[in-house]
Amino acid sequence: MSLRRFFYSFPIFFTVFLLQEAVVTQMRLPAGGINLLLVVALIWAALSTPEIGALTGFGAGLMMDVSQTSPGPMGHWTLVLIIACYAIAFLGYGDDNIRGNPINIIFLVTIGVVAAQTVFLLLGMMLGQQVGSVSNIAFLLAGSAFWTAIISPLILKVISFFHANIFGMRSQL
Question: Does position 29 have pLDDT exceeding 60, yes or no?
Fold first, then answer.
């Protein structure tokens, strides 16, 4: 893998980070809302090899750790996203049935978002952070899955286009 290709993707993720911080955090969506950077990172990882997925998780996790709205210590989101992006990339790597079907990618990303937020919550509890009630957490996770399933098909084609232009035409939907 060429490191140059990874650096070509940085402006895309930085733009998504700015969009997340400036626009998405200002929207008051019911049932918790959406984390756009998390969704984009997991879609990017689903289209990539496991190594690129882990690097994507590292870069997106650092951006999420620097975010003003991110709870928890520095490196918390980085660890979670490295694991989540690597796992999503590993599940989709080598199986063209998963990469070639947008429904499968949307399903993987939706499950990945809920799993990443659950791991973030569990690691936060281990680090001593305060969490809400079980019913509130379940409601927010269900809302996050709903919004991810709504927004993922809308941005999948755009992310697939940028990914194909950076890493080659093999992964284009």
Answer: yes
**pLDDT confidence of residue 145:** 93
Whole-angstrom distance, CA of residue 93 vs CA of residue 71: 32
The domain limits of the chain are 2-171
pTM (2 decimals)? 0.89
Burial class (CB in 10 A: 0-12, 13-18, 19+), 139: middle
What's the half-sphere exposure (Cβ side, CA atoms, 13 Å) at 141? 18
Query: Position of tokens 């035409």?
Result: 169
Encode pLDDT of 86-105 as tens digits. Answer: 999 998 887 777 777 889 89
What fold does the segment set 2-171 form as a domain? Answer: Arp2/3 complex 21 kDa subunit ARPC3 (1.10.1760)
Burial (Cβ within 10 Å: 0-12, 13-18, ≥19) of residue 10: exposed
Dihedral of the CA atoms 66, 116, 53, 173 (nearest 10)? -110
Question: CB 25: neighbour CB atoms within 10 A?
Answer: 15
Q: For position 170, what pLDDT does the model report?
A: 53
